[in-house]
Amino acid sequence: MSSISSLFSESNTPYIDYRIVENLFCRCFNAENLSRSCIAIDARIGPIGVGIKTFVDTPFQKIAEFDKKREYTDTGDVIEDACRVSELRNERLDFSKDAYAIDDFIYHYVVRRPNRLSIHECSMDYIDLDSIKVTKQTGKGFDFTDGKNRFRFSRSKSTILESFSLEHSLYDFGVDFVEDPMRAIVEVYEGEFTIGEPSSQSIVQKPTIVLPLFSTRGGVHVPEKSGLNQWNAGGRRRDFDEIYIPYQKEDRDRIPGFFPARDTPFDLELPSGETISAKVCQDQGKAIMSNPNKELGRWLLRDVLHLDEGQLVTMDMLDSLGVNAVMFTKEDSGKYSIDFTNIDYD
User: Fold this and answer.
1) Which of 75, 134, 277, 305 is positioned for an S-S bond with 291, CB 3.0–4.6 A?
2) CB neighbourhood size of 276 (10 A)
């Protein structure tokens, strides 16, 4: 892919888009692509979560953004800010671990240099909160370390960056640029080159729909008596694990018939790999619930968010984790999967 860099750039440093690297990694290693999920990892191989990156040989690279937590990470005390940023980062690793059944994390990264690429891997570590030391301060942010890794926090962008080693690559190789990549592509379609049969790993675009976990009526918030806090609604005694995913009219009208008819069960694969039964419920089909209802809440509220019974889900919690919506994918007839994602609401 880098050999056709001159389609996009005149530099002798190979250009390869980060999405291409993610897709290539998943194709080469038969990994599950999670890059659309807006979580701390981009792929999963069994119980291993993988963060995938590509960059020129500059060590500090973004690993998380906390745009909705600007005030929380600006206390006036730089040590406190470093600890808070680190806590948020660790919480996102915990979320990925619990939601996607991950046992360990690694980074896989491609470094682009003049006429060459090098491939590296390293562990994706939690930040040791007890060992944080601020090493540098500027008007734009600060650098800090936990004794094992080095980090940088940019206040203007509310992002945390980690310093990646550029030495000791797993594999290093030169890139021979195609002299006229545009012509080469044209020749493919003129029959000069043979296009093989579609791979069994060819990307198939499956129908998807993204549903927010929050409401914008009366301000952006997670309703206290519906949706993820349905257990708190009045009218009858409810199980503490009773929740539903809001399925608003605008979403139903946007992709009619995406889900089976109301009260028709379908299989729903959770990010952890577990499959539960679910269905569209309530008046006008405005809710997606598990069957029995408490299965979805048990997984999300207890296993993933680790909330106590009676503890409300809040917008602040979702902002901290960097997820505020779910994406349903129609895998097959009567079979769906669900992933977390993030959407803008400003």
Assistant:
1) 277
2) 16
**β-strand partners of 218:** none
Distance CA 57, CA 37 (A): 27
- Residue 104's alpha-carbon distances to 64, 95, 101, 186, 342, in angstroms, are 18, 13, 10, 44, 23
CA distances from 255 to 162, 214, 259, 287 (A): 40, 20, 9, 15
Distance CA 115, CA 2 (A): 9
Q: Which range is least confidently modeled, 135-144, 200-209, 296-305? A: 200-209
- pLDDT tens string 162-198: 999 999 999 999 999 998 888 888 887 787 555 555 5
Evaluate whether 85 touches 63 at the Cβ level (below 8 Å): no
Spatial CA neighbour of 246 closest among 177, 190, 326: 326
CA of 71: how far to CAs of 39, 84, 159, 320, in Å? 22, 11, 13, 12
Specify which residues 117 forms β-bridges with: 112, 173
Show the tokens assigned to 89: 């980062």
What whole-number distance in Å separates Cα of residue 83 and Cα of residue 221? Answer: 26
Helix (H, G, I), strand (E, B) or coil at 175: coil
Which amino acid would we find at residue 178? V
Distance between alpha carbon 39 and the CA centroid of its chain, in Å?
A: 3
Give the tens place of pLDDT for each residue, 82-133.
Answer: 999 999 999 999 999 999 999 999 999 999 999 999 999 999 999 999 999 9
d(CA 287, CA 47): 31
